[in-house]
Amino acid sequence: MDDIFCRRSEKEEDVLWESNSFYVMLGVGLFAHGHVMIIPKDHYDAYGELPGNLDQEFAEVRQRVHKVITQEFSEPFWAEYGFEPTVPHAHIHGIPSIGPDYHIDDIIDALFPKDLEIEQCTFSRIKEIYETEGRYILIEQRGIMYAAHVPQLPGMRDKLGMRRFFANITGRQELSSWQALMNNPNLQVRDERLRSETRSRLATLWKRV
Q1: Which helix (H) or strand (E) holds 64?
Q2: Measured distance CA(150)–CA(137) in Å, rounded
Q3: What are the residue boundaries of the structural domains of the chain, listed by start?
Q4: What is the pTM for the complete model shown?
Q5: Which residue from 127, 18, 95, 15 is spatially nearest to 64, judged by alpha carbons?
Q6: What are phi and psi of 144, to 5 degrees?
Q7: Which range has the worst mean pLDDT, 51-60, 115-124, 151-160?
């Protein structure tokens, strides 16, 4: 597979830190200061495919990044869309729960409709759901992991997507669309400012945790 996350060398300036098997990266179109991704160096379509021998390292990397984001911004929640990904390479988002223009008390309640099936689970259970259903949304907040069972209905990725959610809670509707960002130089300038400030604020913290 050849995707932008496999071609890491093209985005080396956005890599903040790495372990043996994962790297932490800034994306494009950040939702907030402190928004980062954890990405496996080898290709997997979703974290539901991650080999068992990498589970512990993945947990340790998540804990380390969690601590850094909490220290500099606010406690993050984690989200991975294990279906219809924007990039077909596993990546999980760490997003501060509090920002200048939003405050998320409970991402489960805020993001998902009441009739969506959600279960508290382990990472092993995420893999089981992926194997049997082929799709899921992984959420982790306050150290507890959840799986959302996503029905195979048209438009579910957009309906449950983080972009639309952040556009609604911040009032910044441009966040809902990649096309809006790519076609608007003013939005690109704002995004680059978020990326630059996040990069500089996190740069000195990795060796302390």
Answers
A1: helix 55-72
A2: 7
A3: 8-204
A4: 0.94
A5: 18
A6: -115, 130
A7: 151-160
